[in-house]
Design brief:
InterPro entries: AAA+_ATPase, DEAD-box_helicase_OB_fold, DEAD/DEAH_box_helicase_dom, HA2_WH, Helicase-assoc_dom, Helicase_ATP-bd, Helicase_C-like, HrpA_C. It catalyses: ATP + H2O = ADP + phosphate + H(+). Keywords: ATP-binding, Helicase, Hydrolase, Nucleotide-binding. The chain is α/β, with parallel strands linked by helices and 1290 residues long. The chain has 48 helices and 37 strands. Helix 20 crosses helix 24 and helix 32 crosses helix 34. It starts with 5 loop residues before the first helix and ends with a helix.
């Protein structure tokens, strides 16, 4: 026979222990099997079992009695039998039946409460405490021993407690540490009909638990509202009905608008209530209870009833926010009739004594969660039939009653039977948080009595995600570290998140004060009859930018008060200043309890006050979906998920509304209001919302300055834009795209500031090839960008997405592979490049000793398209157009082809095909053969025997790029001007050229000379200017009242200006001959001279003196280039001036007389109009202001002959008109050729002696044509004039 193990003997004793002890010791016994010293372990366990047995022995129920007057006492045996025989029992009974206080006693009498506690849940803390007190009193035991209670922050129970009253939230919290609820052998879930969140959660959890705990008894109590639902939930558990003490109630339907009474259309709810009160007052004495949906309706109705002046009647309000003193008035004894105006708080929570009549408008504010706006709403809506019957039952407690419903019976019958359970109309965040913490799986699969809508589950999950409490995984939903901390804080998740953030940012004290305030009703009271006084008192604490700060201000004020006042004085001060003392104490208690709860999480209070920004940032952590952005157009705020809300009028921010706001709560009544608000900034929000913000990126692009790809970021939080158009590094967002853009822009296109050697060398090679393309005007020489991209793409690793990444990588690689990223020129060129010779596109242009850089641009339509020669302004005066017309060799054949194609068709057809003809011409000639057009015309005639006149070339038809562009640059190589016409540029920049030359010849130039103090002038000046060989031509220049030494561009300018300057200096240094002239002239001469074109005799005489000086200067070897020579010249001119002037005047007198005669002859002349016009023009060209000096001393006598020739021509014109016109054609043609030659001169240059001689030859030709009898000075003909013109122009 085997010996029985001591461990087996101990196991047999476990069934008599408390459930928790049994479970604990059974696990120890299981582990003891593996112990080495089983006897020692057995002795230790035995000692623990004996202690546990002693605990059971101490748990004995006291004597139990039942009050006979309670209906439940009559059914105690039935209830006890049901409990004994079933695991779950439903006890249904009206308020006042005694089920709450007597059921625990029935359980005790059944022997329950010994092996585990009888847990008894209540929806409200006040009920848990008062019920515990009542049961302890009936059992004649001290509260906290046999009967105890536990509510939030208070535990008045111990190891010997058999009946524990608690809120349903406490039971939920205990599940976390006692998953099997082994602490209890019985659970009584009271007021289950209220169907709060906690009750539904407990009922669902118990349904899962009961199969695992067959010893656990569950009793569910409910009003008579749908107990069958609970029975069905628990597998058709038995229902025991307990009737309440009720009396008959008559129901009268009095709709506000009676369809049978048209006069009732003008009635409103207040009028209907007043009519019902009058009706009930006529029924006899008794108090009236009126149900209303809110405080405003209560105030409006109270005002109306007080105005009715009802005899011996008192009107009292009753609602949750009412001060405690005003609430107690409702329950105090009274003798007069009382009309109580109450919210639906009086339906089940409070029993108002003495009520005989009820007036039910049929509406209430019912908390309902909006899935769309994610806010809890309090809309006014019709109550359910069950709620209406509860209201009716309020007046059947002590006697027969009457209930007047302000709606029709049809309306009543059409309403839903029951009010939706809270779980169907509330955010499930707290429940989800607890369930996830408990590891109870998917909320949607949880066995609720009424499973919540999936949208509500989603809303709860969204809130927890908003708070950063949940992390999503593929298999299951799990809590984050924040979520695990929140689950340990038995407060609203939003408020808990604020506390955690406050702890992180060092402002937890302020945040706890605020969250404690948000957990209770506002301690600031505003009695209806003293609203202004209350508002004045409360205004002391207001903060213009934050209602939250008002709580802090009030808190500090109350603390200071408490330091100086006794409790009694403090209570009185609170009342005087419209502060609810009890709520103040509750606020302080919750704050203290929050401190205790947060300690296990390592949260310690900050010792220094926190700045408001940190406080509000911590609050934002719990209110991410409660932020708003002001809409300036509509005046309201854009909130989360497209909602729009307004700041509540009672807020300190109502008058001056900020751009950004956060609201503690969003409540929808007449509209969506934000209550308890604060001004915030968007930059406070974003760091807290990283897990929920949506980021969109647009326009990714490479930025050279940053050396990275950037994009424009838009950050939205639930649709509210926090950030718009922020530049961000795109590399971390889309590395693949960023790498591609980096390679394309930085490496391929070269848009990068870097000193890497390979990069510089590669860019130089690319520039070289691109320049060759520009020169050859082709885009098919360089390989395309894709080839270059592929080159880099094969070599640069995937992690390189920016310049910084590249530098880091290249630093490691370049030591071993320095040539990894180097181009070779051969890889950059296509096959087409073999046809292009670089020598055909030189880098410089040479003209004499000057060398100019050439650049090439292939950009059709641009001003500088083609070849550009860069000319320093300092040498511009030395540059001639010679050779530029031939272009560079690479473009020469194209240019000649274009010129041939520009010819008129009748000429062009002789030279087709033009490209072949151009090639043939260029094979024989080059720039050294002369100007291009002349050489080309000569060669074309030689090739094909067809002459090409000069005017046949249509240069405008030649493409723009084939004409050389001249770009004049300054010393810093910056462009001063640019164009195709070198002469125009020279004229345009003459000032700059002169200034540059003057700067180089500063030691020679003079100004303001009136005496010959110019030293010795060189004929040519040569010097250096910024590295350029500057050449200029100094001369004396007439500047009006003085003479200057100036540097001139060309020898021609020098010759002309030196003559004029010397003349002026001579005259400045000689006495005026005017007095001599006046004495010498006869009156007849003076009269003749007065008829001049100069506008006065004085001007004419000056002209004559200048002419005389010119004559004497020429005769005496002038002009001179040094001071000594000038002195000799001055003496010679001074000595002969007066007689020479008289000689000039003698000739001028003859000229003016002849001119007058010609003018008179033309006035009456008859003949061809064009002939007459030609003669008048001839006269004006011969005699004009300044003609004396311009004509010159030696030619003045000839002028008389030319003028007389006009007279002879007029005389002959009537008989020779046709011939005159014919001869005139030749004169006009040759005159046109002469004028064209003059126009071709550089700007500012007058005709030289040879060209000027042609002008006088044309005058002699006129004499030979129209006045042969006067004779010519020398033989003349049209051919002689042409030969002279060609010679002068060569």
């Amino acid at each position: 026979m085997s010996t029985r193990s001591p461990l087996e003997d101990l196991r047999a004793r476990l069934s008599g222990l408390m459930l928790r002890d049994e479970h604990r010791l059974r696990r120890r016994l299981d582990g003891a099997r593996r112990a080495r010293d089983k006897d020692r372990v057995a002795r230790e366990i035995a000692a623990d079992i004996e202690a546990a047995e002693a605990r059971v022995q101490r748990r004995r129920a006291p004597e139990i009695r039942y009050p006979d007057e309670l209906p439940v006492s009559q059914r105690k045996d039935d209830i006890a039998a049901a409990i004994r025989d079933h695991q779950v029992v439903i006890v249904a009974g009206e308020t006042g039946s005694g089920k709450t206080t007597q059921l625990p006693k029935i359980c005790l009498e059944l022997g329950l409460g010994v092996r585990g506690q009888i847990g008894h849940t209540q929806p409200r803390r006040l009920a848990a405490r008062t019920v515990a007190e009542r049961i302890a009193e009936e059992l004649k035991t001290e509260l906290g021993s046999t009967v105890g209670y536990k509510v939030r922050f208070t535990d008045s129970s111990g190891d010997d407690t058999m009946v524990k009253l608690m809120t349903d939230g406490i039971l939920l919290a205990e599940i976390q540490s006692d998953r099997m609820l082994r602490r209890y052998d019985t659970l009584i879930i009271d007021e289950a009909h209220e169907r709060s969140l906690n009750i539904d959660f407990i009922l669902g959890y118990l349904k899962q638990l009961l199969p695992k705990r067959p010893d656990l008894k569950v009793i569910i109590t409910s009003a008579t509202i749908d107990p069958e639902r609970f029975s069905k939930h628990f597998g058709d558990a038995p229902i025991v009905e307990v009737s309440g003490r009720t009396y008959p109630v008559e129901v009268r339907y009095r709709p506000i608008v009676d369809p049978d009474d048209p006069a009732s259309e003008d009635r409103d709810q207040v009028t209907a209530i007043a009519d019902a009160v009058e009706e009930l007052c006529a029924e006899g004495p008794g108090d009236i209870l009126v149900f209303l949906s809110g405080e405003r309706e209560i105030r409006d109705t109270a005002d109306a009833l007080n105005k009715m002046d009802l005899r011996n009647t008192e009107v009292l309000p009753l609602y949750a926010r009412l001060s405690a003193a005003d609430q107690h008035r409702v329950f105090s004894r009274h003798t007069s009739r009382r009309i109580v105006l109450a919210t639906n708080v009086a339906e089940t929570s409070l029993t108002v004594p003495g009520i005989k009549y009820v007036i039910d408008p049929g509406t209430a504010r019912i908390s309902r969660y909006s899935h769309r706006t994610k806010v809890q709403r309090l809309p006014i809506e019709p109550v359910s039939q069950a709620s209406a019957n509860q209201r009716k039952g309020r007046c059947g407690r002590t006697s027969d009653g009457i209930c007047i419903r302000l709606y029709s019976e049809e309306d009543f019958l059409s309403r839903p039977e029951f009010t939706d359970p809270e779980i169907l109309r509330t955010n499930l965040a707290s429940v989800i948080l607890q369930m996830t913490s408990l590891g109870l799986g998917d909320l949607a699969a949880f066995p609720f009595v009424d499973p919540p809508d999936r949208r509500q589950i989603t809303a709860g999950v969204q809130l927890l995600q908003e708070l950063g409490a949940l992390e999503e995984s593929t298999k299951e939903r799990r809590l984050t570290e924040v979520g695990r901390q929140l689950a340990q804080l038995p407060v609203d998740p939003r408020l808990g998140r604020m506390v955690l953030e406050g702890a992180r940012t060092g402002c937890v004290r302020e945040v706890m004060i605020i969250t404690a305030a948000l957990s209770i009703q506002d301690p600031r009271e505003r009695p209806a009859d003293k609203q202004d006084a209350a508002a004045q008192q409360h205004a002391r604490f207001a903060d213009k930018s934050s209602d939250f700060v008002a709580y802090l201000n009030l808190w500090e004020y109350l603390r200071e008060l408490q330091k100086t006042l006794s409790n009694s004085q403090f209570r009185k001060r609170c009342k005087a200043e419209y502060l609810n003392y009890l709520r103040v104490r509750e606020w302080q208690d919750i704050y203290s309890q929050l401190r205790q709860l947060a300690k296990p999480l390592g949260v310690t209070l900050n010792s220094e006050p926190a700045d408001p920004q940190r406080v509000h940032t911590a609050l934002i952590a719990g209110l991410l979906s409660h932020i708003g952005l002001k809409d300036p157009e509509k005046g309201d705020y854009l909130g989360a998920r497209g909602t729009r809300f307004a700041i509540f009028p009672g807020s300190a921010l109502f008058k001056k509304q900020p751009r950004w706001v956060m609201s503690a709560e969003l409540v929808e009544t007449s509209k969506l209001w934000g209550r308890v608000n604060a001004r915030i900034e968007p930059e406070w929000i974003e760091p807290l919302a990283q897990h929920v913000v949506k980021r969109t990126y647009s326009e990714p692009h490479w930025e050279r300055k940053r050396g990275a790809v950037v994009a424009s970021e838009r950050v939205t939080l639930y649709g509210v834009p926090l950030v718009v158009g922020r530049k961000v590094d795109y590399g971390r967002i889309d590395p693949e795209t960023s790498r591609e853009l980096f390679i394309r822009h930085a490496l391929v296109e070269g848009d990068w500031d870097t000193r890497h050697k390979f990069f510089k060398e590669n860019r130089a090679l690319l520039d070289e090839v691109e320049d060759l393309e520009n020169r050859a005007r082709r885009r098919d020489l360089l390989v395309d960008d894709e080839t270059l991209f592929e080159f880099y793409d094969r070599r640069v690793p995937a992690e390189v997405v920016s310049a910084r990444h590249f530098d880091s990588w290249w630093k490691k690689v370049r030591g071993a592979q320095p040539d990894l990223l180097n181009f070779e020129k051969a890889m950059l060129l296509n096959e087409a490049a073999e046809q292009v010779s670089e020598s055909d596109y030189p880098d410089t242009w040479t003209q004499g000793s000057l060398r100019f850089p050439l650049t090439y641009q292939f950009e059709p339509g641009a001003d500088a398209d083609g070849v550009t020669v860069h000319i320093p302004v300092a040498v511009l005066n030395q540059v001639t157009p010679d050779g530029f017309d031939w272009q560079v060799p690479g473009l020469r054949e194209e240019l000649v082809t274009a010129l041939i194609k520009s010819l008129p068709k009748q000429l062009r057809r002789n030279f087709v095909p033009a490209p072949d003809t151009a090639a043939a011409v260029l094979a024989r000639v080059g720039p050294e053969d002369g100007p291009l057009l002349d050489v080309l015309a000569r060669e074309l005639e030689a090739l094909r025997g067809v002459a090409v006149p000069p005017d046949a070339w249509q240069l405008d038809a030649v493409p723009h790029h084939l004409r050389m562009t001249f770009r004049v640059v300054n010393d810093k190589r910056r462009k001063l001007a640019e164009g195709k016409d070198l002469a125009v540029l020279k004229e345009e920049l003459s000032g700059e050229v002169r200034a540059t030359i003057s700067a180089a010849a500063d030691s020679i130039e003079r100004s303001g000379l009136t005496t010959p103090a110019f030293g010795e002038l060189p004929r040519v000046f040569a010097g250096k200017r910024r590295g350029h060989q500057v050449k200029a031509y100094p001369a004396l220049v007439d500047e009006g009242d003085t003479v200057a030494v100036r540097m001139l561009d060309t020898p021609v300018q020098q010759r002309q200006r030196m003559w004029q300057g010397t003349r002026k200096l001579l005259r400045l240094n000689m006495p005026s001959p005017m007095k001599f002239i006046n004495r010498a002239l006869t009156n007849q001469a003076k009269l003749t001279l007065s008829r001049n074109p100069h506008g006065g005799v004085a001007a004419l005489l000056e002209d004559c003196v200048d002419c005389a000086v010119d004559k004497l200067m020429a005769d005496n070897g002038g002009p001179v280039w040094d001071e000594a020579g000038f002195a000799v010249l001055l003496e010679k001119v001074r000595g002969a001036l007066n007689p020479t002037v008289l000689d000039v005047l003698t000739e001028v007198e003859k000229i003016l007389k002849a001119a007058n005669e010609a003018e008179v002859a033309l006035e009456g002349a008859r003949g061809p109009a064009e002939s007459l016009a030609d003669m008048r023009q001839q006269l004006s060209r011969l005699v004009y202001p300044g003609f004396v000096t311009a004509t010159g001393f030696d030619r003045l006598p000839h002028l008389v002959r030319y003028l007389r020739g006009i007279g002879r021509r007029v005389e002959k014109l009537p008989s020779t008109g046709a011939k005159d016109v014919e001869l005139l054609r030749d004169v006009e043609w040759v005159t046109g050729e002469y004028e064209a030659a003059v126009a071709a001169l550089p700007p500012g240059v007058t005709p030289g002696p040879e060209l000027l001689e042609v002008r006088w030859m044309i005058e002699e030709l006129r004499v030979s044509f129209f006045a042969q009898t006067l004779g010519t000075a020398h033989p003349v003909s049209l051919k002689r004039v042409i030969r002279a013109l060609d010679k002068a122009a060569a």
